[in-house]
Amino acid sequence: MSDIQEEWKPKYNPWIVCIPLMVAAFMFVLDETIANVALPYMAGSFSVSRQESTWVLTSYLIASGIIIPSVDFFCKFFGRKNFFIFSIILFTVSSFLCGIANSLPMMVITRILQGFGGGALLPLAQAITLEMWPVEKRAQSMALFGMVVVVAPIVGPVLGGWITSNWSWPYIYFINIPIGLMAIGLAKKFIEDPPYAKKQENVKVDASGFFLLIGWLTCMQIVLDKGNDADWFGSTWVCWMTFFAVLFMCVFFVVQTVKKESLIDLKVFKDGNFFFGTLVQIVMQGVLLASMAILPQFLQGMMGYDAYLSGLAMMPRGVGAMTTVIFIGTIGNKINPKILVVAGLFLLSVAGFILCNLNLQIAPINIAIPNFIMGVGMSMSMIPIITLSTATLSQEQMTNASGVQNLLKNLGGAIGTSIVTTLISRKAQAHQSFLVDNMTMLNDAFAQRVQAYQSAFGSLDIHSSNYMAQKLLYNQMLQQANMGAFRDTFEVCAIACVIIIPLIFLIKGIEEKKEN
After folding, report:
1. How do residues 294-336 score in pLDDT, each as one tens digit?
2. Among residues 142, 28, 125, which one has the least CA distance to residue 80?
3. Is 456 a domain residue?
């Protein structure tokens, strides 16, 4: 298939068609993070522990992960427009069911349905958006799409915290209903199927591939979400779940390679741009979601912020992202996209290294500045890399490629979050072990500090005041150990962004591809 081909032209103005696409994609991405801050309230409503309530998040991620790589098959089976509208309907209806759920099992089941409905929205929105513009004009469309991908996860915790605090947690799902109805009407009116995306006859179901995909993603997601709490491979069930995840994954890729009519088409990885561009996006998604997971933990656990204020502290990242989206949409076509990606990754690493200097006496501005830089860097790198990674694919490959790419990005986010969660736990133990060695009366500095604190408890007897002084110092030591763990983890995120920069130079621009 030639790389340069006549492109399909949409009937309506592409910017109009983008409205239902972006609305649907925004709903899906928003619901990945909006429920995070409401988990304690849900746990109270359902009379379960906070740990059990995390299944509300895990079930959604598993279900959406299963559907994302399967979108190409379902589009052939139902027709792409029909499948897109059906997905919005399922997502909207299940959102209502989530809001009226009165038990944890019911909530998990409805979240699975919501994941099944929402999983197709992001890759389909990406594929359709990319198809409507020629390659040289995709920067503007991807700027709009990038705003959804980058801004929605940031807005989620803020909006979720505000709704939960001022109304109640069911409304974080009820708000999807009017938005979903609007998206359905607009999609029915403006979206159309190109010839290669219409319903196809005699489409065979890859049952074995679908079964293996379910087994692989379910086992892997459970391990990533629950592994740290179970001490990873110190737990027998984690070892077995990991074994089955790896087994199902290996067999899945073998089956998809040898089968003629497979669930997903792995031939897209023969395209160098797609392979390296997807690899870069996996790491970036890991850094994005990992930093969004641990920074609120720091603000709430170490600085005493509540859920709403910690979400609000993340808003400068959204401001930075939106500012960059406007910049790229305006003059992005005039700048080499590889330069933008490298500059964005550099800014991400700078933000990470700034966060390495956090301490317990910081002002809000010390959080706002690196967050703003991170938002700028994320948009500056994420938007052009999506364009570059798909620039040399044909339109017929776009739906399948978007599904595969978004699956791997989701896995990157899950792995990144799991890694940093484990790092904080292990690094805190390492720092504590180092610091506690100095907490002895043989250490003059420690002895002097104990005596100073003892004097503050002068109303107590000598034994009680000594105990209280040492207890106070021990708590301070724990805080410093945790603080060191957060700094080390942000440093890892910064280094990861630097390491992937050389991969950008392995990606060819569309002009280079044409010359070859």
Report:
1. 887 788 778 888 767 777 787 888 888 888 887 876 776 678 8
2. 125
3. yes
